[in-house]
Amino acid sequence: MTSIISVCDLSKTYASGFQALKAINLDIRRGEVFALLGPNGAGKTTLISIICGIVNATAGSASVDGHDVVSDYRAARAMIGLVPQELTTDAFETVWNTVSFSRGLFGKAANPAYIEYVLEALSLWDKKDSQVMTLSGGMKRRLLIAKALSHEPQILFLDEPTAGVDVELRKGMWKVVRTLRDSGVTIILTTHYIEEAEEMADRIGVIARGELILVENKDELMNKLGKKQLVLHLHDRLDVVPESLAAYGLEIGADGQELIFTYDTQADRTGITGLLKDMSDAGIRFSDLNTTQSSLEDIFVDVVRNTT
């Protein structure tokens, strides 16, 4: 799969001396959903802003479908729709005019049918004649997405797009994202709702302290760094793990009513068979067992923690 965005040795140091990005190298594939995760202040928004031509890099380069974001800014920017974190809209303008004006800024001919489609998809059609100032915070967030889609971009940046949006509307917004992905639009998203990234993304990038820690296919990341836990519900309460079971690294849970065994799904042997035998030899009986898989959020927390 070819790359539509290429970032090479990109760095950004602000006048204050703060280094927001440190030699970032990243290729984003055409037509994929790429989730960029990181704690607050990690450099996510700075990276997006440089690619979109809003912030100048200190060093390195970025290109969009072969167009350099500095020397060929207009061509690069025309391919991008950006949904920023901040709610910046003309408070006195109507929803319809706001979205239509954004389309015109990119030199696109008027297309009322397409604007209607976008507003309906984002549950804004009944507000098309309302002034922006009358909208709720969630509606304003959806309006930003409508503006970003107004000129039919090939790339869509979603920087915390569902912040302040209720669960039902969030589901509707992701339905639109899926439709765009299926039509070939490349989508880059940052989100605090990591379950959204787990559901939507093809690849995951994790950034912390201005450095890109990893970039991995989501499924491979889940398999490589994910852990499984075997939870054994004990017949009798247990206060301490017997010495004979110390090698398994067991944890006691539910006030002594559970034993929790974490194991590597990629290992040749999980150790479960040996554990059950040794538990039987130790006289520890269990009434039930179940397994759980670590989530992307668990993996993200572990990765970031190990870099700080």
Q: How many individual helices?
A: 10
Largest sheet data: 6 strands, mixed
Radius of gyration (Å): 24 Å
**Helix percentage:** 25-40%
What do we call the CATH homologous superfamily of the largest domain? P-loop containing nucleotide triphosphate hydrolases
What spatial order of strands do you see in the largest sheet? 6-7-8-3-9-10
Distance between the first and last residues' Cα: 34 Å
Order of helices and strands: EEEHEEHEHHHEHEHEEHEEEHEH
Q: Structural class, please? A: alpha/beta
Query: Which ranges are low-confidence, i.e. pLDDT below 50, for 5 or more consecutive residues?
Result: none
Mean pLDDT: 84
Taken as a percent bin, the fraction of beta residues is 25-35%
Shape: elongated
Describe, in plain words, how this protein is organized in 3D:
With 308 residues, the chain is of the alpha/beta class. It has 2 domains: 3-223, 3-Layer(aba) Sandwich (Rossmann fold), CATH 3.40.50; 227-295, Alpha-Beta Plaits. 32% of the residues lie in helices and 28% in strands. The protein has 10 helices and 14 strands. It has a 6-stranded mixed sheet with strand order 6-7-8-3-9-10, with helices on both faces. Strands 2-1-4-5 form a 4-stranded antiparallel sheet. Helix 3 (95-105) runs parallel beside helix 5. It is elongated and about 75 Å long.
Q: Would you kindly provide a brief summary of this structure?
A:
The protein is an alpha/beta fold and 308 residues long.
Feature tags:
2 domains; alpha/beta; Alpha-Beta Plaits; 14 strands; Rossmann fold; 308 residues; elongated
